[in-house]
Design brief:
Layout (H helix, E strand, L loop, with lengths): L1 E4 L4 H10 L5 E3 L17 H16 L3 E10 L5 E3 L12 H12 L6 E12 L2 E13 L15 E3 L11 H7 L1 H14 L1
Parallel strand pairs: 1-2, 1-3
Antiparallel strand pairs: 3-4, 3-5, 5-6, 6-7
Helix pairs in contact: 1-4, 4-5
The structure holds inosinic acid.
Length: 190
Amino acid sequence: MEIVFATGNAHKISEVSELLPEGIRLIGLPEIGCPTDLPETSDTIPGNALQKARYVYEHFGVNCFAEDTGLEVYALHGEPGVYSARYAGDDKDPAANTRKLLDKLAAHSDRSARFRTVIALILEGREYLFEGIVEGRIAETPAGDGGFGYDPVFVPEGETRSFAQMSNKEKGRISHRGRAVVKLLDFFQS
Ligand code: IMP
């Protein structure tokens, strides 16, 4: 089976690829001639996931899935949430986003947070949503050079290491994205 993964983010492609069983091949947007900077202007995570998947389905007529992810920090009332990518500005700089987050959290003792991913699948015109969540906390200082985005400061529940200190496989077993992908695979199998 082949399915289009509607993302321009190479990290997401490699994380998801490692979770798929043999027999499912991901097709990237360049392979179908689609630009990789898909519109995502919704103010919700599922809204953005659906917007990206619909763009590809409507313009290219192929079954596909897209995902959107947000980091939700409890002491900041869910910030940065759906604005995670542009938290510190439109240039989507992960280091600046992380610095802003650490600065804002400095005044708080509660550092609990969660990552939330929603996958939107469009299959023959029908839409399905799958959600994955991982709880954890924001570390005081970044650690590790794996992963991407906020990974160096996110320590999942039950762990002492940040996501950036784990391999893709280790992260995928417990991550928001990994959990959403498991639900997507269960759907394909059923
Ligand atoms: P988007 O889902 O590509 O819009 O990502 C939103 C923001 O969250 C971006 O700043 C990403 O770098 C960040 N992000 C998404 N997924 C992850 C992840 O698995 N770990 C760390 N940061 C992530």
